[in-house]
TrEMBL record:
Signal peptide range in chain numbering: none
EC number: 2.7.4.25
Keywords: ATP-binding, Cytoplasm, Kinase, Nucleotide-binding, Transferase
HAMAP family: Cytidyl_kinase_type1
Protein name: Cytidylate kinase
Family classification: Belongs to the cytidylate kinase family. Type 1 subfamily.
Residue ranges occupied by any Cytidylate kinase domain in the UniProt entry: 6-220
Location of the protein in the cell: Cytoplasm
Enzyme class: transferase
Catalyses which reaction(s): dCMP + ATP = dCDP + ADP; CMP + ATP = CDP + ADP
Gene designation: cmk
Binding site for ATP: G10, H11, S12, S13, C14, G15, K16, S17, T18
CDD domains in UniProt: CMPK
Length: 226
């Protein structure tokens, strides 16, 4: 059985990871959350005072990124948790603050180069489902299947709001919507690998689809590719 790489890109909070995880499990591939890596870099900056007045101290980050260890380790639920310098940061990186800081650090060229290199290493033997913003365009331009996921901002905010509430985080819907819009804007307009749909990708607008319907859609897209 020849393995392929599957790239799933799209806007913030549109369910990319749910689709990617479900698909990876179904076909026995490894799921990799590339956004978690940018979130871990962001958390490092937040914890070490490298973001002042919303601005990243690039020289300081540049010297520490060389020693920063970001990795995924299996957890007891059959998934993987994100570790930064040997500490499990899976929960901390999911906050709105970390998300917003991630969209800032991810505009920096050397940050992207470092993450892209790590991601390419993780996918070099194929059999990977990776989600993010630049997977089909930059990380795996040769991915055999590229899916571009999107949905209306209000619907994405609503879903993310419920998810954060379920995790016990104290959030406000308007803040979540503002965060989604702010990240769309920054991700789409940055100079370094902006979010864009790869020409050879298939688009999934899941505004009106249930998770089950999205899963079915992805499985059939996958059958055509493998
Ligand atoms: O996917 P997630 O929302 O966890 O990503 C957090 C942030 O990391 C995004 O808003 C985006 O700015 C950045 N990101 C990126 N490239 C990726 C994955 C995430 O720039 N491949």
């Amino acid at each position: 059985n020849i393995k392929i790489n599957i790239a799933i890109d799209g806007h913030s909070s549109c369910g990319k990871s749910t689709i990617a995880k479900g698909l990876a499990k179904k076909i026995g591939y490894t799921y990799i959350d590339s956004g978690a890596m940018y979130r871990a870099v962001a958390l490092y900056c937040l914890q070490n005072g490298l973001i002042k007045d919303g601005v990243v101290d690039e020289p300081a980050l540049k010297s520490s990124i060389k020693t920063l260890i970001i990795e995924f380790r299996p957890n007891s639920m059959g998934g993987a948790d994100t570790y930064m310098n040997n500490v499990n940061v899976e929960n901390e990186i999911r906050s709105l603050e970390a998300a917003s800081a991630a969209s800032k650090v991810s505009t920096i060229k050397f940050v992207r180069q470092t993450m892209v290199y790590l991601q390419q290493q993780m996918g070099k033997n194929k059999g990977v489902v990776m989600d993010g913003r630049d997977i089909g365009t930059v990380v795996f331009p040769d991915a055999e299947l590229k899916i571009f996921v999107t949905a209306k901002p209000e619907i994405r905010a609503e879903r993310r709001y419920k998810e954060l509430l379920n995790k016990g985080l104290d959030v406000d819907y308007d803040d979540v919507l503002a965060n989604v819009i702010e990240r769309d804007e920054r991700d789409s307009n940055r100079t370094e690998s902006p979010l864009r749909q790869a020409e050879d990708s298939v688009v999934l607008d899941n505004s009106d689809l249930t998770p089950d319907q999205q899963f079915e859609w992805a499985v059939s897209a996958c059958k055509t590719a493998i």
